[in-house]
Amino acid sequence: xxxxxxxxKTYGTNIDxxxxxxxxxxxxxxxIKRLKDxxxxxxxxxxxxxxxxxxxxxxxxxxxxxxxxxxVEPINFEPLEAAMDESKRAAxxxxxxxxxKGAALGPDAPKTEAEKSPEKPDxxxxxxxxxxxxxxxxxxxxxxxxxxxxxxxxxREEHGLPTPAMSLHLVFMGNPGTGKTTVARLIAQLYYAxxxxxxxxxxxxxxxxxxxxFVGQTAIKTDEAVKKAIGGVLFIDEAYSLAAHVGxxxxxxEAIETVLKGMEDNRKDLVVIVAGYQGLMEQFxxxxxxxxxxxxxxxxxxxxxxxxxxxxFLSMCEKNRYRLTxxxxxxxxxxxxxxxxxxxxxxxxxxxVRNIFENIIGVHADRVASDPDIxxxxxxxxxxxxxxxxxxx
Length: 393
Prior knowledge:
Elements: E1 10-11, E2 15-16, H1 25-44, H2 78-101, H3 113-116, H4 123-132, H5 137-158, E3 170-174, H6 180-194, E4 202-205, H7 217-229, E5 233-236, H8 252-265, E6 271-276, H9 278-286, H10 289-294, E7 298-301, H11 306-319, E8 323-324, H12 326-341, H13 350-368, H14 376-380, E9 381-382, H15 384-391
Parallel strand pairs: 3-6, 3-7, 4-5, 5-6, 8-9
Antiparallel strand pairs: 1-2
């Protein structure tokens, strides 16, 4: 019978310790325990404090021999130091491998104190929801990296380790309908799950939700929005509009200054995400030194291509229990491919898909409403003719 090939020892995130000429962590702990026991026995000879406490006696204790007395062997700490150095090396290699593979977000990763609380949302479920979004591959990768960094930073804080300054505020750049609000909501919950934020709510505003029409009211209105968002994320859509106007009666810049003050006053429990068109957002950030210093992470949301638009449409149909005939499916694929190829500067991405879907179910309703013998199949089946008519609306 052939010898079975010896399998490499793994730990936690399936890291091959043999590849680094290392042993699993438990073996290093065993070494240290064994050395501790040996030291206890050795140190007993000269009255070390590590000696187990003995029952009190009326007899006067004899003076303990000193380690420089004849006949007492000196203690060799080299094995302990070597084991500690090697265990440190094992830990360093483990952390490097975790960073490389994103293992800090794996199910076996160490948990922050917040994650251990049963009230917190499940981190892995939130990440699965992120992965289920159509397209946005670069965004998903960037979000995972950001959560990795925030989680390790939180763990370092809990262990009393130095934590370098880090801005969790974000700039989302892209056309409407590219998923910016959806991703912002997930980030709020992810930050909450790992304990970076205390509540995880998303408060969405635009210029009208921050700026008032009279002197002194903008600061109050903006401050109310900031306070509502403490513990979560303040999401400012079309944020560039706050700096787009000039004149003594424009209070957009006052709103910006109030938001910046709120970010500073609540820097440990408030995240601000500003969003809008790419070119306009770049101008917005560069318009104020305070914005440039606090927003240094940029997420670019690309337009959905034709295939991704079709997948978004199918998900809407599935959610609402509509099914397409084969002819309808083929026509819809062509429709969204053409929509993407002919897109203009005001392309609405998923918003355009939503509009088309609503037009289709309207046409479908008009067609089947007059049928006196409607059954479930009639209520759920969409034909090519429905989509053709809806696309002309």
